[in-house]
Amino acid sequence: MSGRLMIYGATGYTGELVTREAVRRGLDPVVAGGNGEKLGRLAAELGVQSLVFGLADHDSIVRSLDGVSVVLNVAGPFGATAGPLLTASIAAGAHYLDTTAELARFLLAESLNEDLVTAWHSTKIPNIEVYIHNGIPLPDLAEGMELPDGPSAQERSIGRSRVAAEVVGSDGTTVRGLVDTPTGYTFTQLASVEIAARVLNGSFTPGFQSPSSAYGPDLVPSIADSHFIDL
């Protein structure tokens, strides 16, 4: 494996999950972000390098990416972080990956011909409708209580994430399927590190890509016990 992985936003909830997985897999990431105190503690615990820098100055970001091959951005809100890191990555000659689900960030990346996720780009289907079921109510918090940053490890291990798809061809032919994965945070943790590892190993398609356009249908089943089901 050649090159260096930088995880920006490593001390956030998702960022720490991703960082710990990257270290477990031996990727030796550089943890980066704007909070030096938190980065220092995390870097000391995991035995990795830390780098503190903000995103206000383009040239400063480019200098901070010296020697970095892959930038994995897990710092939200992506409306504030994706643009500066994406353009700086291009200038520094580094691959840019992130975990956003924001449409505006997809469009920005596509306009710059970089790596992001969107179903339209992967499938070329022009009219995709998306429906989301969320039957879990927010907790009733007592006065003064705050929501946790995210679910605990035990909570993340409970349940599954499932996405069902139905595609109707111009001739009326209908195909249905379902993808079954670990819960969202766990899948994001594992999949983002898997993709970063592949890019570090030289397995990538240049330009703006979604995970499926870059790695095809075999990517999802390679993540833990994820699998496809034909319906």
User: What Rg is obtained from the alpha carbons, in whole angstroms?
Assistant: 19 Å
Q: Unreliable segments (pLDDT under 50, ≥5 consecutive)? A: none
Helix content: 25-40%
Bulk shape: globular
Structural class: alpha/beta
Number of strands: 8
Estimate the strand proportion. Answer: 15-25%
DSSP helix count? 9
**Describe the biggest sheet?**
5 strands, parallel
Oligomeric description of these chains: single chain
- Topology pattern, helix = H, strand = E: EHEHEHEHEHHHEEHHE
CATH level-3 fold name: Rossmann fold
Structurally, the number of domains stands at 1
**What's the end-to-end separation, in Å?**
39 Å
CATH superfamily: NAD(P)-binding Rossmann-like Domain
